[in-house]
């Protein structure tokens, strides 16, 4: 059998777009292993770039089997497992590395959040104790120690019978074929991952025991819901800004308490008494369960009427209603809501039920047994009473034939919206601007795009796995891709990336020439023991004080972005004119004075003695409707 080409040859072919040929060659290479001068790690990286993730994992594991202290292989393997959501295998690798190197800060930074997320307190205590004995950085250990759950001190009866869990599932169940699992990462915050499996009694037991934290998508497959809920929260940015101001926090919590009590009284007066829950982080959930599933659109309308009938909450409290949608669209799941009685992964606090005076309910299962869901008639009555309080706007009656205007069929006026990201946003967005100012490699890649130069595959990957981990960075990255001549269809991002961003070492490995030219040597002395990545620079970004809601804020941002574009337009005006003159000269020599591109057609036209360059864009296909999702607005 002919030996597959060497890694360098396969990497060159992959860069030229021969993806399928490279994949077939790598599948054959897996049976013979690395060649002379090659390594399992290099082979694994190439497999990962080609999309052969399982083969990449096998190669990284082979590297660790050869050298258990191969830090590069471990880092790549952990990145791969985290990106693919394989948390069990990730925990196993990191635990084994901590056994060999208990004081390794890089391993601890990744292992400790995994143990905290699973509430493996004994394992966590052992890891931290061994790290302290091995001389790990005390500041690092202090930062890694998270708050313990107070549920045991509160004496809550948490061990349920199967019948209790069945009742819990009946009350809080949502979409039948899907649920969500909460995760927390110190760098990225808190979020949820959709899990395409039904919610079961076994999963709920693990949720209550703190092994996982689960959420549900309220809209069922038949378009109905079995409950609705209100999420009453304190604004997170305000809490973080005032976390050292005890008096301010006391005021904010009192505002939250007043708003919650007002909503409880309001719902109870309408015949919709809620089940009250401390969400475990910064607010309260008020649950109202239905005696039988009702149409989600009807319940969504009830929510709109409820929110309209109450005055705006006091700053800094916000109120959201679930379900947020009246129906599922396409494959969309709608927004999710976290289930009660679990551990919030960010705070380590249990989401407990509260009594009439705000006290913790010690017997939650008995509390649920005494719950009385509301009937459809009660919902109708509540809607009627809300309509009496503030009538819902109704559509105007249709005019008579004599009153109708002639049907001229002009069609709707176009809705003009500013682009989601512009060149000016690179100067306006604080995180993206700060990152480009601090990381010379990312700044150099941005400058290449500005000069109209193409980015090769590795350069695009580096931008993707750095900017792509920022919420606004996704828009910035896709904007830069849109200015490149050759982009693979899988390269643009649809949402913020999970997993670990590209490390500085990985960037230097991918772009050795560019890294050498711009002196890529950041030390990150302000973050000892942290995973070295350009995103660490964001820790030096000055915190901006929270602002009261200001209707001018979006307008001011657009104005600053527009001003930045104007400044950039002035500097590029001469270049644009030079290119236009050269293009016109070349088109003059073309047979029909035009150039056909995939995007459209350039043509020269003589009008009243003046030659004009015209651009006719190709007809665009109607974009597909973007399905709804859960990343934003999860409670």
Structural write-up:
The chain has 635 residues and is of the alpha+beta class. It folds into three domains: 7-144, Tetratricopeptide repeat domain (Serine Threonine Protein Phosphatase 5, Tetratricopeptide repeat, Alpha Horseshoe), CATH 1.25.40.10; 151-389, DNA primase, PRIM domain, CATH 3.90.920; 425-540, no CATH class. The chain is built from 25 helices and eleven strands. It has helices at 7-15, 19-32, 40-49, 53-66, 71-83, 87-100, 105-117, 121-133, 138-144, 151-154, 162-172, 201-209, 236-241, 246-269, 296-309, 364-369, 376-389, 425-428, 430-438, 440-450, 457-467, 471-482, 504-510, 512-517, 553-588, and strands spanning 179-185, 189-195, 214-216, 224-234, 275-278, 283-295, 317-322, 337-338, 594-596, 600-607, 610-617. The strands form three sheets. A four-stranded antiparallel beta sheet has the order 2-1-3-8, covered by helices on one side. It has a four-stranded antiparallel beta sheet with strand order 5-6-4-7. Helix 21 (457-467) packs antiparallel against helix 22 (471-482). Residues 146-154, 393-417 and 621-632 have low confidence and may be disordered.
